[in-house]
Specification:
Length: 261
């Protein structure tokens, strides 16, 4: 049966992901209930379930509104406090919605208990990854509650997924991330080609997402911490770091990105 994947715009740059199949839909990280309600009503869809990746308000702010008139399952990370009637999930568990089985992955770093949801795909559809704010196209989330070591382990886990996996992250940060990535690795031809494609999409008012794991392996500096040019760029910023340790490179890159304009 056909799957329809849609990023619903919310706030300034958030995406609430909606996945529809056979008259039902799931949504991921509904920070705002209004775009969810509008999409369900306009398409005649019934909400079948909600997936939550982490506790930040722009990802959970619409839960109370939605759950006031709907009583389906809400799956959320076991390691984080999220108000409301949620079912806690952690790595190794599986969640079934729309007849699809999602594997839960622990991906701490941005927050302490952040999770992602991975569907392996089928003959007609490429795999899906709902990764919240851990992995962005050409970037990663800020380390609000975790360490560079945790984030490196989390990103390595995601990078090991099949290359065709569609990366459904929660913010339209791609162009700013690509500007930073080009500063880190200016000789990366794949990065420059991807940047041109994404700029063309944004010029037409279209989302750059989903990306794919294969693309991210080629362009995302936070997945390329063991690549010589990336490690050298990080060391140029912090001469004392051990450029042979990818997590130290990631930490330096993240500090650089925090101040990058």
């Amino acid at each position: 049966m056909h799957l329809e994947l849609t990023p619903l715009r919310a706030f300034d740059d958030n995406y609430i992901w909606l996945l529809a199949r056979g008259g039902e839909a799931l949504v991921v990280d509904p920070g705002d209930a209004a775009p969810v309600r509008a999409a369900l009503e306009s398409r005649g869809l019934r909400l079948a379930g909600i997936l939550v990746t982490h506790h930040h308000g722009d990802h959970v702010g619409g839960l109370d509104d939605l759950c006031a008139s709907w009583h389906g399952p809400v799956y959320a990370p076991a390691g984080e406090r999220i108000a409301g009637p949620v079912t806690p999930v952690r790595e190794g568990q599986r969640v079934t919605l729309l007849g699809l089985e999602f594997e839960v992955l622990d991906v701490p770093g941005h927050t302490a208990g952040h999770v992602a949801y991975h569907w392996r795909g089928d003959a007609g559809h490429a795999p899906l990854l709902f990764c919240g704010d851990t992995l962005f196209s050409a970037g990663c989330g800020r380390l609000f509650e975790g360490t560079p070591q945790q984030m490196h382990a989390s990103l390595s886990k995601l990078a090991a997924l099949p290359g065709a996996t569609r990366v459904c992250c929660a913010h339209e940060y791609t162009l700013s991330n690509l500007r930073f990535a080009a500063a880190v690795e200016p000789g990366n031809a794949e990065l420059q080609a991807y940047r041109a494609r994404c700029e063309a999409l944004r010029a037409r008012g279209l989302p750059t997402l989903p990306s794919t794991i294969a693309i991210e392996r080629e362009v995302n500096p936070f997945l390329r911490c063991a690549v010589g040019a990336v490690a050298q760029a990080a060391r140029a910023r912090q001469p004392a770091l051990d450029a042979s340790t990818p997590s130290e490179v990631l930490g330096a890159l993240r500090e650089w990105k925090n101040a990058f304009r």
